Amino acid sequence: MDRRRFLGALSSAAAALGLGSRPARAWARRARASTDRIDAIGIQLYTVRSLMGDDVEGTLAALAGIGYREVEFAGLHGRSASEMRALLDDLGVRAVSSHHSLQEVTESLPRLLEDASTLGQTYLVVPYLDAGDRTADGYRRAADAFNAAGAMARAAGIRFGYHNHDFEFAPLDGTTGFDLLLERTDPQLVTFELDVYWMVNGGRDPLAYFEAHPGRFELLHLKDRTADGRMVDVGAGAIDFAAVLERGERSGVEHGFVEHDQPPDPLASARNSFGHLSGLAR
Predict the structure, then answer these.
(1) Could you tell me what percent of the chain has a pLDDT over 90?
(2) Which of 29, 246, 260, 277 counts the most CB atoms within 10 A of its CB?
């Protein structure tokens, strides 16, 4: 099925559920007691992709040894969903989320949802929009596609989301692409994974977004930034992660994933970030 026909099918499915054409509206999340915390510090496995390519079992075991109990996938490295689930279960690690391109979603959403269910995931996230989609109309089309995919995901017991970089915060017709996505997606169908580094790199304040849009950010990417813009392990930069975690959990964040896009030593990076986050008074 080509992309246009699949998007049409998504829209039809959403309409049949009475969901796809609803405007975005306030979403009352469950009340969170003051003792509630983000469930656990996980890791986006893109951080260790070079190691996963050579040794899936050993890399997952090393991460579990550091203390990670949740992961977010960026591909299964040749394993089936059931094989990967068995590996995680043996290690006491839970798959929470996975990243998939918008093309994958439009072409293969039923299969992606089936794999997510097999893995035990509760989230499926689009991590990026191609340059050709970064116009006002492109963001609007993406939001419509996200709403439709979110309706199908919800029917399968999966939450659908979008992960930001910094390009979404460039000025665009008096607004930004990110704000268009927030405005045009239905909060009951689409959540957001706020990447702290990329939001700060785009000149925006994550704490302000938590305050302005409570309940919209259920996932976090935890990566640090130096004052001159370099991506570094969490704790080695200038971002106040104690404040990010505290404000995020009050706003409705459920899971946080450590990530570093180009770590010189992936396991050392994962260990450093975990150690800093574990040591924060939360």
Answers:
(1) 84
(2) 260
